[in-house]
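User: Let's play a game. I give you a shape written as C-alpha cells, and you guess the letters that built it. Ready? Here's round one.
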C-alpha cells in the first residue's frame, strides 16, 4: 500500500472495524455507504478542488477541525483521484499534505453514475466477452459446478472495456453474492473518457474544469 493511499484505507478500515463489531453486515454496509456518500458529496469535492487549485497544502487534521459537520478529507481526495483522475500528491498528514502539482490540470476520468454502470452491462462489448467466458467455463460455476443462474464476475476492473478472459469468472448467483459480500472489489468510480460516451456520459461538470 502506498503512502498516498494510506488516508482512505485507514479511514475505511476504521469504519469496517467499528461497524462489524456492532451491527449485522448488511446494515453495516448501508451505513458505511451512507457515510461515504456524505463525505464524498459534490459540495465537499468542489471546495477541496478549489483549495488545491489555489495552491493550498491540505492537512487532514487542519481541514477537519475547520468544519463542524464531521466531514473527512481523505474520502474527498480519494474521489477526486479515482472518479475524476486528478493527480493529487501526499497523504494528508502534517509531513505530507495533499497538494496538486499542476493546478491547471483537467480531469482525466469520467465519474461513473449508477445509470452508467448499468449501461455498461448492456453494451455489445460486455455481451460478447461475457458469452466467451461462459463458453470457456462450459456454462458452469467455477466454484461449485452449478449450471443454474450463472453470472459473469470481474476478478479485476483494471481492464474495463478491454477485458481478457482471465479478468472474468463464471459463477452462480449464490457464489457471486458471497464473493461480493466478503470482498472489497467494486465497479470503478471513474472510467476513461475514451469509453465513457458509450455508457451515457455527458461531459465534465463545470466545477471540475480549471
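Assistant: Ready! My guess for every position:
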Amino acid at each position: 500500500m502506498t503512502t498516498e493511499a494510506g488516508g482512505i484505507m485507514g479511514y475505511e478500515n476504521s469504519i469496517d472495524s467499528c461497524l462489524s463489531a456492532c451491527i449485522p453486515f448488511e446494515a453495516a454496509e448501508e451505513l458505511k455507504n451512507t457515510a461515504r456518500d456524505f463525505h464524498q458529496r459534490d459540495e465537499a469535492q468542489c471546495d477541496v478542488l478549489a483549495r488545491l487549485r489555489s495552491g493550498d497544502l491540505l492537512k487532514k487534521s487542519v481541514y477537519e477541525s475547520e468544519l463542524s459537520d464531521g466531514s473527512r478529507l481523505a474520502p474527498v481526495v480519494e474521489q477526486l483521484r479515482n472518479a475524476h483522475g486528478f493527480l493529487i500528491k501526499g497523504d494528508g498528514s502534517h509531513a505530507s499534505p495533499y497538494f496538486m502539482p499542476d493546478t491547471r490540470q483537467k480531469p482525466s476520468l469520467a465519474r461513473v453514475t449508477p445509470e452508467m454502470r448499468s449501461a455498461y452491462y448492456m453494451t455489445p462489448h460486455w455481451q460478447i466477452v461475457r458469452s466467451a467466458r461462459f463458453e470457456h467455463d462450459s456454462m458452469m460455476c467455477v466454484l461449485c459446478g452449478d449450471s443454474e443462474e450463472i453470472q459473469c464476475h470481474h476478478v479485476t476492473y483494471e481492464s474495463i472495456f478491454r477485458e481478457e478472459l482471465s479478468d472474468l469468472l463464471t459463477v452462480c448467483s449464490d457464489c457471486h453474492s458471497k464473493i461480493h459480500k466478503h470482498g472489497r472489489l467494486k465497479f470503478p468510480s471513474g472510467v476513461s473518457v475514451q469509453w465513457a460516451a458509450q455508457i451515457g456520459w455527458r461531459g465534465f461538470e463545470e466545477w471540475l474544469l480549471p
